[in-house]
Predict the 3D structure of the following.
Amino acid sequence: MTNRYVYGVMNDDPVEFEADAVGGADYVYTVSHRRLNAVVSDIDTTDPEETDEDAQRHDEILREIMERDGGRTIVPMQFGMAFESDRALKNILRGARPAFRRAINDIEGRIELGLKVVREEDADVNEEAIEEAVADELESIADQSVPNGLFSDRLVLNQSYLVAKEDRETFDDAVARLEAEHDELMFRYTGPFAPYSFVDVAIGTQQ
């Protein structure tokens, strides 16, 4: 298992810990270039299959990092980024350093929260009014938001929000108010997640 599987990149101190990691690995550590630290584990391929179990492990490692030492900021990588050597990974960190620095600054001290609003079966709802009600409650609390796909005809809204950690309770309360005011709707509130939806760092091919 000589390849490096990457979970994300941070500029905090290096880490190392035992964990149930992707591809059967049991140890997570960092590969460093200057002040950037890529959080990795060893893997026997550069093209890992995205099973449900490994996708969950990927997310759990990111959550572990986010909760360490009172909270760390990490730029999450999508599942599947693996490199043949430390050298190849450090070359990526070197080339994308400005982009990583910007991304870390953008998400520092923030988490991603998700909200899906689903209408009850056969419920007649004013979707535009619901969207406005949700926006009125949540947009002023969140730093950013992005829409996600409406993959069901019952799905009225599917949104991700970037929220400062200190505003989490305020955001929770706002979602609870919306839920109490709309009996005809189901609110599926999820998170916190690493802020996948709010970073866009291209780090090249897995080699």
The chain has five helices and ten strands.
